[in-house]
Amino acid sequence: MRISKAQIEQAHERIKPFIHQTPVLTCSTINKMAGASLFFKCENFQKIGAFKIRGGMNAVLTLPQDKLANGIATHSSGNHAQAIAFAARQTGTKAYIVMPSNSPRVKVNAVKGYGAEITFCEPNQQARETALQEIVDRTGAEFIHPYNDERVITGQATCAKELLEEIPKLDAVIAPVGGGGLLSGTALSVLYFSPGTVVYAGEPEGAADAVRSMKSGKIEDAPYINTIADGLLTKLGDKTFPIIYEHVKEIFTVTDEEIIAALRLVYERMKIVVEPSCVVPLAAVLKNNKVFAGKRIGIILSGGNIDLSKLAGWFNAA
């Protein structure tokens, strides 16, 4: 099924009472470094501190009451977990969240704060899915996938829709890619609301499944997993990949050192709190400046939920 322009517009109206229309910021210093005009869509200022509230809220608000009655469930290391917990509280239902044991403490605390019931599991996909299935079997809760769900993709698309409405005539938009919910939604909004704009993505070298998938034409595993961008560790899904494969021009990979350099730049020059996954697109633009030179580029800063105790270690190591 193809997600339509009308479905994205309807999702935007549906979730507006529950989200912020986040600001678009610029930075002259970073523009000079990039040799381009960069427009940062700041989802780090979003409810729950990340874009994930858009997809999570849209998915929950489209559920009929009889399904809501048994609660909602998901597995997530952080931002989607917060989105589902928040959405459950807003709709008066129960949230059951499976989180890996190594999830960032700041995100675990936020999920608890929204009143969700957390089940911890070993940090691998099989453990997540097994624990989740047990919860769904026991409670009858509705599973909302973190990204491989058309309701979620449609909600995430509203982020780029806002950006394109506020900053028209962008030459390109670049987003981070993990499971692909944000990137596939971004690609669809660009297709419908600014068809002359090109879509790119940034991906950590330490979780580079999407770039391999684009080259082979089918969903691939990353050759290895080792990155500070913890929000981008998941691989593409069968709903997100076809959209990305058709509508995203190129995916650029960046090292953790390049991610840290971009993180430092945003902290020092823009004075805003962002998480490592969030600055992967900026790192990609700076690394591939010949591709973007002289152009108007929209960059989606996906979130700002960071364990501040880790900053010193990252910056001292850089």
UniProtKB/TrEMBL annotation:
Please provide the record's keywords in A-Z order: Lyase, Pyridoxal phosphate
Q: What are its GO biological-process terms?
A: D-serine biosynthetic process
Cofactor(s) listed: pyridoxal 5'-phosphate
Identify the stretch annotated as signal peptide in this record: none
Q: Which Pfam families match?
A: PALP
Residues of the Tryptophan synthase beta chain-like PALP domain? 16-303
In terms of Gene3D superfamilies, this protein maps to: 3.40.50.1100
What the entry lists under InterPro entries is as follows:
TrpB-like_PALP, TrpB-like_PALP_sf
Keyword Lyase in annotation: yes
What this protein is called in its record is Threonine dehydratase
Q: Tell me the protein family, please.
A: Belongs to the serine/threonine dehydratase family.
Q: What is the originating organism of this protein?
A: Lacibacter cauensis
- Gene Ontology molecular function: any one: L-serine ammonia-lyase activity
